Amino acid sequence: MVRIKLMGAFAHLAGARELNVKLEGRKTVDELLRGVIPRYDEFHDKVIMINGHPARGDAEVEDTDEIKVMPVLSGG
User: Fold this and answer.
1) How far apart are CA 76 and CA 61, in angstroms?
2) Which residue of 5, 9, 66, 72 lies most exposed, with the fewest beta carbons within 10 A?
3) Beta bridge partners of 71
4) 71 CB contacts (<8 Å, ≥6 apart)?
């Protein structure tokens, strides 16, 4: 079971701050998050952590991983 912690707009879009997802087959972080966060691909800048370490969207997910994801906000 993969634990996903969502922050900011991602939590709002998914309707939850934390999800547990059963991993079926091999998936990347992006593939997994596209399945639980509507409009995920509209956010080009995001911070992804796997088990407390920075990761990219193309990193492969293991069944016991904890993923944290937050959008990067910009303004000025």
Assistant:
1) 35
2) 72
3) 46
4) 7, 8, 9, 10, 43, 45, 46, 47
3-state secondary structure 24-41: CCCCEHHHHHHHHCCCHH
Alpha helix locations (H) across 1-76?
9-14, 29-36
Give 60's DSSP letter.
B
Yes or no: say if 61 and 27 are a contact pair by the CB < 8 Å rule: yes
Tell me the C-alpha to C-alpha distance, in Å, between residue 18 and each of 2, 5, 71, 74, 75: 10, 4, 15, 24, 27
Residue 8 has what pLDDT? 95
Both structure tokens of 35: 């399945």
Query: What number is the average pLDDT over the span 24-40?
Result: 95
* Helix, strand or coil, per DSSP, at residue 13: helix
